[in-house]
Design brief:
The chain is α+β, with helices and mostly antiparallel strands. The chain has helices at residues 15-22, 25-40, 97-113, and strands at residues 3-6, 49-51, 59-65, 68-77, 81-89. A five-stranded mixed β-sheet has the order 1-5-4-3-2.
Length: 114
Amino acid sequence: MREIILYCSESGRCPVEEFFDSLTQKQFERVAFVLDLIEQLDFVPKEYLKKLEGTDDIWEVRVRQGRNIFRLLGFLDKNSLVILNHAFAKKSRKIPKKEILIAEQRKQDYFQRK
């Protein structure tokens, strides 16, 4: 079982919570469902969670709700915690490099402060 933790900056800002606040109730319920699956399942299908190639060990949570596709980026801490540190609505097939860079910077910040 995994525990999902949301990254917060040193100032206390939590980007993923802010993203959740921007979602409709139905969208948030779908995101919560997928996050619950990730916490509960030992083996999570790649449809919901996969490691992004060519990154500093960044993982992608994929959530599809109707025509919307949401991506939550994060990383592992001690192979048991998924730290979600960045979220956005995906509009193209590839994840923009700037989104990956933000996730990698927040990962560095997390481990420096830990």
